[in-house]
Amino acid sequence: MPTDFTPLKLDAAIARTAIAQLSAQSPLIHCMTNTVVQNFTANLLLAAGAIPAMISDASECREFALQSDGLLINVGTLQHQQCHTLYQAAEHAHRQAKPWVLDPVAVGGLSLRTEFCYQLLALQPRVIRGNASEICVLAGEEVRGRGPETQHRVEQAFTAAQRLALSTQAIVVVTGETDLVTDGLRSISVAGGSPLATRVTGVGCALSALCAAFATLDGDRLFHVASACWMLSQAAEYAAVKAAGPGTFALHLLDGLAQQQEGR
Amino acid sequence: MPTDFTPLKLDAAIARTAIAQLSAQSPLIHCMTNTVVQNFTANLLLAAGAIPAMISDASECREFALQSDGLLINVGTLQHQQCHTLYQAAEHAHRQAKPWVLDPVAVGGLSLRTEFCYQLLALQPRVIRGNASEICVLAGEEVRGRGPETQHRVEQAFTAAQRLALSTQAIVVVTGETDLVTDGLRSISVAGGSPLATRVTGVGCALSALCAAFATLDGDRLFHVASACWMLSQAAEYAAVKAAGPGTFALHLLDGLAQQQEGR
Amino acid sequence: MPTDFTPLKLDAAIARTAIAQLSAQSPLIHCMTNTVVQNFTANLLLAAGAIPAMISDASECREFALQSDGLLINVGTLQHQQCHTLYQAAEHAHRQAKPWVLDPVAVGGLSLRTEFCYQLLALQPRVIRGNASEICVLAGEEVRGRGPETQHRVEQAFTAAQRLALSTQAIVVVTGETDLVTDGLRSISVAGGSPLATRVTGVGCALSALCAAFATLDGDRLFHVASACWMLSQAAEYAAVKAAGPGTFALHLLDGLAQQQEGR
């Protein structure tokens, strides 16, 4: 049974308003993310107008939950001895009604992260961002990625994303050629971007951090999170024009975010 | 009671001599720094003419203390299980009269790092580099940053920096729009730089590593450490001209350091 | 007794064929590497046409050994509590006849990694890549590097490399101004590259990951591994023309790899 893939397209004016809001508020985002992408994630948040912090000690995470505006949990380089600290950080965010984002990197093919991500769902992430395979796994489908790679197209994950959004009350973001953002009832698509983004490690992970930043803004969170995707997509198009390959692309991507943040 | 903020300006000729000295000696700097900025710190030291090493095992740190010329301790992503190793590394450096630098990232608002930084002061860092809020905290003032962000201007931290320098016998560096370098009795200001440096993660952290490198040189350490600030400031001005945003700025900054190191 | 240094030069046509093979197969490489270079390593593999994954939990490493095509073990920031997991990962790769690469960063001057690297040799790495000092140490010579720096020239390590290759049945790669690749009986040299590569942290470490990727290809592994060196060397020459220093060089290097991967 084919499913209609007819989400709304995001209006650019809405996205620009959200970007200006982010810039005015510069939310402080606690990023508990994998060690591969910490630097790029921090730089991407700074470029976009948010403030990153990468606290990792358990006791400091507890304290920092009172200071930060949002939280990202990314399981890319998860180790079992970190699970307790990560779980507690999500719990603190949940209790204090601060939005937190789950990035379930490579969930499905590896047991520790798969079990842990299922546990985390009980703490109600406000946003879940993954590729199509990851979202299908979290929605309960039997699939298997190839390390960090997806085996599905975004369209194939549409009903899984809606189902996951409804069951968790999170906004679910499936990224790929076109990004899909859904709360289960309403769905928005964000087109554009560049295939070069798949040749730079951590672009998806950093987008999850940006989703956390936009999720802290007042207003309709579905549109705010879609605006994060739109901002990155616009920056990717700017970067693709400037770049001669994935190396220079990554830096122009940051420049492209900063130019939007400055209203250019 | 307003305080006069009238430090000396650093003479460019002095800085250029120190840069040539660094290039000739290429000191080996052990960087025990946060995981977010390790790569950028290593690249910045290499560009400037020093050699970075990021040993992290306790037993290897002990051995490496005999081989390295200087040490950086940065508490950005401190975890309680690291404290003992970091403390011992500082102790070894102290005993062997090798200069070590303390970078007290986000001290004040988080307990573990705050207590740990106070403990480390007893091991006589030769340089302490922080933003205005961090220096005020170490000097005993009740302030609170917002994660890694400062709530103070450099000028407001002037007396705190002098007091901290006198009580610890360290050279204290307060970085911001203008950098202040003081040993408590003599003070030097280094102007210039670029606001884009605040949009790249780890520029301050990497400057601390560069201070460690310059602190290993023979001669007047106050001027050497100020020369590290000057070198970075010059590179930032070069990069600001070349860059279209914070992404490209970070790379041109490294190029700008390398060009100074080569005497260009 | 002077040794003739007369290895074969690699034929460009052979290298280009191997590069196309890599691009067609896009092997999944498990990189257990030091925290300083994880990001650059992942980006370099992606640019060259392979897929990186940085799993670090012991149980997940066990599972991932069945999914990945090759493994890199780099001891740059080794901690004693990691040794067991790293050893097991190498053991799994060995048992499943998947090629794994050893990068013995700074071996010799530091006890933990030195003992550990000797232990790992028993698990038959298919490739060992290091600078001249590191290869001499592994071959049993009494030498001492200065942190990550070599004290030898590639030519001086020629007989050590051959001896190490014969005793371990690994392909040994000595990188420097000219790279040497040997299986003990046959030797290939790869010239070219750029001195700027020594001013960017992790270029050698990332080359080790690229060697792991090429080592997974069907055919004569000696030529495949030499092709990895050739690919990087070509990219370095491209980057040297484009760059104004080590900062921009690093990004153009990635672009240069991607252009070769695309057959340009």
Describe this structure in a few short sentences.
The structure is a homotrimer of 264-residue chains. With 264 residues, chain A is an alpha/beta fold.
Commentary on this structure:
The structure is a homotrimer of 264-residue chains. With 264 residues, the first copy, chain A, is α/β, with parallel strands linked by helices. Chain A has one domain (8-257): 3-Layer(aba) Sandwich (UDP-N-acetylmuramoyl-L-alanine:D-glutamate ligase). Helices cover 47% and strands 13% of the residues of chain A. The first copy, chain A, contains 10 helices and 9 strands. Chain A has helices spanning 12-25, 38-48, 58-64, 83-95, 111-121, 132-138, 158-168, 203-215, 221-242, 246-261; strands at 8-9, 28-32, 51-53, 70-74, 100-103, 127-130, 171-174, 179-182, 187-190. Chain A has a 9-stranded mixed beta sheet with strand order 1-9-8-7-6-5-4-2-3, with helices on both faces. In chain A, strand 5 (100-103), helix 5 and strand 6 form a beta-alpha-beta unit. In chain A, helix 1 (12-25) packs across helix 9 (221-242) and helix 2 (38-48) packs across helix 8. Chain A starts with 7 loop residues before the first strand and ends with a helix. At the A-C interface, helix 5 and helix 10 of A face helix 2, strand 3, helix 3 and helix 10 of C.
Helix and strand arrangement:
3 copies of one chain form a homotrimer.
Chain A: E1 8-9, H1 12-25, E2 28-32, H2 38-48, E3 51-53, H3 58-64, E4 70-74, H4 83-95, E5 100-103, H5 111-121, E6 127-130, H6 132-138, H7 158-168, E7 171-174, E8 179-182, E9 187-190, H8 203-215, H9 221-242, H10 246-261
Parallel strand pairs in A: 1-9, 2-3, 2-4, 4-5, 5-6, 6-7
Antiparallel strand pairs in A: 7-8, 8-9
